[in-house]
Amino acid sequence: MKNTIRVERAKKRISQETLANAVKATRQSIHLIENGKTDPKLGLAVRISTFFGLRVEEIFETELRP
Question: I need a labelling partner for 25 at 20 to 30 A (CA). Which of 8, 38, 43, 63 fits?
């Protein structure tokens, strides 16, 4: 799943660790999500988007499969 977490973090000048602490996740989880290696569960996706003041669909781009 593509996302703009890295871009949003850069705008706020915060580290993966800072974001992870704010959304109750691990730095490793944030790293994997940012790099498209894993998809966040809905609750974490909501916490991340809320942290940035954006809607989930503004952070995460879902790919619909036929």
Answer: 63
31, with CB counted inside 10 A (0-12, 13-18, 19+), is: middle
User: What CATH architecture does domain 2-61 belong to?
Assistant: Orthogonal Bundle (1.10)
Give the model confidence (pLDDT) of 18-55 as tens digits: 999 999 999 999 999 999 999 999 999 999 999 999 99
Q: Please give, one letter per residue, the 3-state secondary structure of 6-34.
A: HHHHHHHCCCHHHHHHHCCCCHHHHHHHH
Residue 3 is encoded by which pair of tokens? 């996302």
Alpha-carbon span 16 to 6, nearest angstrom: 9
